[in-house]
Specification:
alpha+beta; four-stranded antiparallel beta sheet; 4 helices; binds zinc ion
């Protein structure tokens, strides 16, 4: 089990850590700033820097079998660190920040389009959500203009914790049908965009919608009779 520093502060780029275990599968640390793939957001990439000056390139980060277990996947052929080794974990911040901006933008999209979310994915520079909406009622330009307005309005974004009971009493909060929020731990972490969106989410987000910057609706695809895929990209 690892201390997940990105959970409380998505802006941390680096931390010191100790190696718990390292094998062909990957490297486990006692604490980490690396976000493991989940909730439609890709795992972080970056470097593990040893005191000797040696650096291990991390090409992906995934969840382990146990709760809060994070596996840092080294580039093929990388030498592995010894257990107990102290190191510095550095994420590729430029890439992560783009992922945070796009991830937060998908929350805005979710608030604009009526209909349940059936899937979603953030990739570097792009993001998409699938909506359960009939017909071809979605208008590309209208969605883009509403999105850019919400971005420019500079809404604060932040976590809010509620109890399992409070969540059960407000099932409308769960927009993403494909991803059930983790419950049974007594409390659930929600992401709130003040006045715009509130839903359970474990991903990383920017602190203010203004940080997202201008976006475009690149495409709206028909994925089956009821399913519409809205694909976003950064305008610049
Ligand atoms: Zn989120």
């Amino acid at each position: 089990m690892s201390e997940l520093l990105f959970r409380d502060d998505g802006y941390l780029r680096s931390c010191s850590a100790r190696v718990i275990e390292a094998d062909a599968q990957g490297i486990k640390l006692d604490r980490t700033v690396f976000y493991p793939m989940g909730g439609g957001q890709p795992g972080d990439t970056g470097m593990l820097r040893l005191p000797s000056g040696r650096a291990i390139a991390i090409v992906d980060t995934v969840k382990g079998a146990a709760a809060d277990e994070v596996i840092h996947v080294p580039a093929p052929g990388s030498p592995l660190p010894e257990p107990e080794a102290e190191l510095v974990a550095d994420i590729d911040w430029e890439r992560r920040y783009r992922l945070m901006r796009m991830h937060t933008c998908l929350h805005l999209l979710c608030s604009i389009v009526p209909g349940a979310v059936t899937g979603g994915q953030v990739s570097d520079g792009r993001g998409r959500l699938d909506f359960d909406v009939p017909g071809s009622s979605l208008d590309k330009e209208a969605i883009a203009s509403r999105l850019n307005a919400l971005i420019a309005e500079a809404h604060p974004v932040g976590p809010r914790w509620i109890t399992d009971e409070e969540l059960a009493a407000q099932p409308d909060l769960v927009r993403t049908m494909s991803v059930k929020p983790p419950s049974g731990m007594g409390r659930v972490r929600l992401m709130e965009i003040s006045g715009v969106d509130l839903q359970p989410c474990g991903g990383t987000h920017v602190r203010n919608t203004a940080e997202i910057g201008p976006v475009i609706v690149a495409k709206i695809e028909n994925k089956g009779r009821q399913n519409r895929r809205v694909i976003l990209a950064f305008a610049e």
